[in-house]
Amino acid sequence: MKLFDRKNLVLVCSLLLVAKSNASADEVQFNRDIRPILANHCFACHGPDAAQREAELRLDLESAAKADRDPKVIVAHNAKSSELTTRINSADHDLVMPPIEFEKPLSTKQKALLTQWIEQGAPWDDHWAFVSPTSPPLPTVKQEWVNNAVDQFVVTRMRELNNDLRPSPIASRVTLIRRLSFDLRGLPPTMEEVAGFVASGDYESVVDAMLASEQFGERLGMYWLDLVRYADSGGYHSDVSIHISPYRDYVIQAFNENMPFDQFTREQLAGDLLPNPTQRQIIATGYNRLNKTTEEGGAQPGEYLTKYAADRVRTTSGTWLGLTLGCCECHDHKYDPFTTKDFYRFVACFADIEEKGVYGGSKRDPEIKVATAPQAKQLAKLEKQLALLQSQVKDATQGEAVQKQIDVIKEQRTAIEKQFVRTMITRSVEPTVIRVLPRGDWLNSSGAVVDPGVPEHFGKETSPREQRFTRLDLANWIVAKENPLTSRVFVNRLWKMFFGRGLSSRLDDLGIQGEWPTHPALLDYLSVRFVDSGWNVKQIIKLIVMSRTYQQSSTLRPMDISADPINLYFARQSRWRLEAEFIRDNILSVSGLLDLTIGGPSVFPYQPSGYWRYLNFPTRTWKSDSGTSQYRRGLYTHWQRTLVHPAMLALDAPTREECTAMRSISNTPAAALTLLNDPTFVEAARALAARAVQLGGERENDKIRWLFLQVLSRPDTQQERGAVVQILKTAREHYTDDPQAAVQLQTNGLFKLESTVDVIEVSAWTMVCRVVLNLSETITRN
Amino acid sequence: MQRQPFENENNQPMLNTLANRRQFLGRASGGLGMTALACLLRAEESQSTGLMPGIEGGLHFPARAKRVIFLCMAGGPSHLESFDYKPKLAEMHGKPMPETYTTNQPIAQLQGQKLICQQPMIPFQKHGDSGIEISDVFPHIGKMADELCVIKSMHTDQINHDPAHTVMNTGTSISGRPSMGSWVTYGLGSVASDLPGFVVLTSKGGRNPQPIATRQWHSGFLPGRYQGVQFHSAGSPVYYVQNPAGVSKDLQGQVIDTVNKLNGLRNRKVKNPDISTRIKQYELAFQMQDSVPQLMDIADESQATLDLYGVTKADGSFAYNCLLARRMAEQGVRFIQLYHRGWDHHNDLVKYMGICGGLCDQATAALIQDLKQRDMLKDTLIIWGGEFGRTPMAQTNKGAVGRDHHMRAFSMFMAGGGVKGGTTYGNTDELGYDAVEHPVHVNDLHATMLHLLGLQHDRLTIRYQGRDFRLTDIAGEVIQDIIA
Q1: Mean predicted confidence (pLDDT) in A557-581
Q2: How far is A563 from chain B (nearest CA, A)?
Q3: What is the pLDDT at residue A460?
Q4: For chain B, what is the radius of gyration of the CA atoms?
Q5: 3-state class (DSSP) for residue A438
Q6: Which of A125, A678, B76, B232 could form a disulfide with B388 if both were Cys (CB 3.0 to 4.6 A apart)?
Q7: Do A298 and B404 touch (CB under 8 A)?
Q8: Residues sharing a CB contact under 8 Å with residue A640, sequence separation 6 or more, in sequence order
Q9: Which of A178-182, A556-560, B199-203 has the lowest mean pLDDT?
């Protein structure tokens, strides 16, 4: 039975593939159909890596693949005379390609494609993502269904796939506002917001409001922090706390202010090299210092400086370019046209950064002392008061009294300034000499000295040769209009944020082993539009979420199952479990505990005691926050790289040791135990229960209805009510029989019940709330 | 395990594997509902207890071992005072270390210091019929000599603890890669029905212990269910496994039942295979709330067994953890990793070796013996060793003499699970500096371990960032000579 089902699965999928290739039936496309075959089956020995190259043959370059040699590998329009065709079809074990021991044989279909391609004249294109995008013409679509350009591309592509496939209907208003709220703020909508939108139906106003909310910066920021591997600890050895939270707040503020993405890029990579940089621009350069660092006694500085440099190349190329340049540390890239020299040229771009291989303690100079985001707000307020008073003091009759007020405010200002926090920054010093390290060996100084620059495949640097290529030059190159990667990479990742899958499904590699986009024209259109808009992040997001495509229902129809079971063509929306931080934010929000303060030093929510037992030099204990900072959003949780908060880990938050473009989403018992038993979740259930009892109305049914509206934005169904009433009854009996247990239950977390509240009743409702907070629907964006 | 035509958002090849089929059904699909595919998922979920492997097609070879118990002696025990006796080093005692060895070699705490030969500080004896030389730190392990295969020619790439552990666990020092326990459970799944497939236990004692990162048992870019789970003997044995204060077991069961009931109702409407999976995970979570405390409670062990291990109570000692390892092995846990932290002997090496030996020797031998008498040693692979070795040169900057970190040579041993007992493999030079005869890199150790488990190391791969990654990175050779 099982086997039979497995076959079915394969069958469905092969049908899908046939449908896909039938779309443009006879035309073989090099980038879509041929290069992936060559890359995966041939490049390991006939690719960019000179050290591994066999038979002096390269198949990654057109000139080499079609070179005049005997026998010729590729003879256009003549498959029979092409050695390539002969060898892939050879029955001789010694001749057949790929070699049998390589264990990557070609399928019949792949062989046919290669043959067909040669017969078509073997047309060659550069790798799609290495060619600057040009704005494709907007396809004309008759349908009224279309809202904006996004839909024109999506509907056209849908037709190409399968003429029977139709877009899904628009989702319900409740679903839409929940989707928007989670996607744009990482938070659920309030009951009032839902009611307002259900009544008005004014979708665009909701979009605008959410884009303008301060939680938007936190939502986008959280994703950015994964890319740049933001964390609060050094990562190696004793994993000491480091000073960097102002950088995190810079990111949030930048997204909130809709800072153009090119400026955002320049400030992080090279804010210190801008003319008259502001303090904010200097804080931004903390980016260059986010690599893991050590303070271990026996560490050799040279070795660790090499590690830091490689870490920086991996992260910078991954964050902005979607490239895996890190592969070239020891050898030329196996698939992409990048060399070891390119890697070390990239390293050299950062050779002017002042840093140490081995630090002492927590300090990682250079650092500066700055106001935290909340402090900056307070200071601005004080300055305003001060200015007002100072204008009064001149012409006031009671000058002395005003002067006293001024003094008080100045004292307050000084008090705040004393509590400024440190943050790592970039300071440019005389660049160190960078050599190619043979096989990445830091002790081997036989390699050639390299100048800073970008990978040679992308041509010349943008600055004149006689001046050293700087970090600022690198940043300018990254955000140059002609750069083929940066805008595609960013837009593709945004698309993933709003549809669950990138237009190219590989978010972290747009190189040759990346995925051919399902919607190449749409990706290019959005990329060009993003650049042309002045790298306007909010504008491109608004375009996406205003589309009809985004607003579709995620409910599956029979036609989806037959025509596009894995939603390659976006004829419906997707659904997925929320990210770790948003699961926390969601339950704190609906329970009324959430503290929406933005920025400041990281916070310490409850963590199982002993979780830090493996830390040493020195040993440390985690002290949970006692005040409202216990209820801050997940992205402010202290990020200990070697011991990420266990609730975060159970819900797939990354360790932030490496650039993460795509989190996995697991579904494990560990996640279930976390949602059931973590004190944060139990406390939220208690607080929510207290609200349900107090605010939910008179009757039991009213309270249940209130609870569902509060958490799920919809009323309960009759069947659901049956189950809820049952657990409520059981729990009520239990706590009536054992009132001491109810008292104990109320000790989970710091939240205090008002003295007037019936502890047994709230405890019984707490069980109901635990049920509702654990529902799949509660943690799912659909 | 070849490249698949399209891949899902988690970078996993989409169609070829059981685990990914689950993801295919559960997520990339956006939900398939009551289709044949979803039925397939449910059939698999219901027929299987335990963790399904992430690959299809079964074993690559007949397996010699079904499970691994990896005894990690964190800190780096000295090979020169454990398994690698070097009389020449005694002759050279007090003389400068020949520069031919040390020129242009990485060095840790001895940077800028005189490099002086240090003789073996602890006597060795020949043990068993095989006559394997083992130091007096390990009298009990000595009695098991004829079960051991000692590899004297281990070497690694990293000279500091954290990166060297990362190499030992993931095959490379670059962070973010899956750990070996995750790879093994990904390749084989686990038959333990209500315990994780990959469990980590730690103990400490000896010199000031090194920190240890969750990275060492992280699943990296493998699915999260293959991540190692830490068990503790103090406090909650597994994080969040205890009911909240004021919630009885019955009530917790009712909460979970209601969650599952409501999820089931919802699923009738939205037909999302993620929900079916989640229902199962909640059931499993509830079972774990029972099974984990049961596992940790050793009241049902005989006095003879407790005496064999030297366990008195559930005290978090290495001995207690060894006993738990056997209990987990019996229940089908696939990969059990024990860390004992305290082997970083920069100074007072004799004293600290004595302490560490006192804490670890008897229990290690007991574990081998106990598995053997239960007829489980034949298919349980035990691996013992640290993340690196220690210098033939003395470290004298503090207290009595010690030895510094050393990556060019160290000793490990394997037992059971299809390895040749009573043998040694490879050798170091006469001063114990370099692995010169049959050098075994960590990648080779991993390749051999996977081979014994029935997995071909270069076929156990996952596509990530455009590359097929594997535990053995770009290297790894199976040591055929040590396989029985």
Answers
A1: 90
A2: 12
A3: 60
A4: 24
A5: helix
A6: B76
A7: yes
A8: A231, A232, A233, A239, A612
A9: A556-560
Nearest to B224 among A296, A514, A666 (CB): A666
Establish if A679 touches chain B: CB-CB under 8 angstroms: yes
Report the pLDDT averaged over residues A344-362.
Answer: 96
Domain closes at, from A184, A213, A242: A213
- Which residue in B33, B43, B210 is closest to A561 by CB distance? B33
**pTM summary value:** 0.87
Residue B444 is encoded by which pair of tokens?
């080779």
Give pLDDT, residue A459. 78
Q: Please check whether residues A383 and A445 belong to one and the same domain.
A: no
Region of residue A112 (phi > 0: left; psi between -120 and 50: alpha; otherwise: beta): alpha
Residue A734's identity, in one-letter code, is H
Residue of A nearest to B45 (CA): A2
Q: Is A640 on the interface with B (CB under 8 A)?
A: no
What is the arithmetic mean of pLDDT over A129-145? 88
B250: closest CA of chain A, how far (Å): 10
A507 falls within a domain:
no
**Lowest mean pLDDT segment, chosen from A144-153, A740-749, B441-450:** A144-153
Are the beta carbons of A617 and B241 separated by less than 8 Å?
A: no
| Domain presence at residue A37 | yes
B263 and B411 in a single domain? The answer is no
State ipTM.
Answer: 0.90
Domain boundaries, position B251: 242-299
* Interface probe, candidates A41, A613, A674, A725, chain B, greatest B C-beta count within 10 A: A613
CA atoms within 13 A on the CB side of A10: 11
Contact B323, B182 (CB under 8 A): no
The sign of the CA dihedral B296, B297, B302, B308 is positive
CB contact under 8 A, B161 and A565: no
Tokens 């082993």, residue? A513
Q: What is the pLDDT of residue A650?
A: 92
Distance CA(B101)–CA(B114), nearest Å, equals: 14
Considering CB atoms only, which of A10, A237, A671 is closest to B15? A10
H/E element holding A156? Answer: helix A149-161
Mean pLDDT of chain A: 92
pLDDT value of residue A334: 85
d(CA B343, CA A211): 55
Residue A586's pLDDT is: 98
Residues B420 and B281 in one domain: no
The whole-angstrom separation of Cα B249 and Cα B242 is 9
A618: contact with B, CB 8 A cutoff = no
Structure tokens of B361? 């020797």
Number of domains in chain B: 3
What is residue A21's predicted lDDT score, i.e. its pLDDT? 39
Interface test with A, best of B166, B186, B259 (most A CBs within 10 A): B259
Residue A465 has what pLDDT? 63
Q: Examine the domain organization and report whether B279 and B189 are in the same domain.
A: no
Can you tell me which residue has the tokens 């059939």? Answer: B43
Return the minimum-mean-pLDDT range out of A2-6, A200-204, A358-362, B29-33. B29-33
Question: Is residue B58 included in any domain, yes or no?
Answer: no
From the list B7, B246, B270, the residue facing A741 with the nearest CB is: B246
In this prediction, residue B116 carries a pLDDT of 97
Residues in chain B with pLDDT values less than 70: 1-49
Q: Tell me: do B287 and B405 sit in the same domain.
A: no
3-state secondary structure of B326: helix
The DSSP output letter for A128 is G
B141–chain A nearest CA distance, Å = 27
Residue with tokens 């990362």: B166
- Please identify which residue in the block is written with the tokens 């041993």: B413
CB spacing of B11 vs A506 below 8 angstroms: yes
Residues B295, B415 within the same domain = no
Q: Which two tokens stand for residue A324?
A: 């895996």
Same domain, B197 and B254: no
Per the CB < 8 Å rule, is B31 touching A443?
no
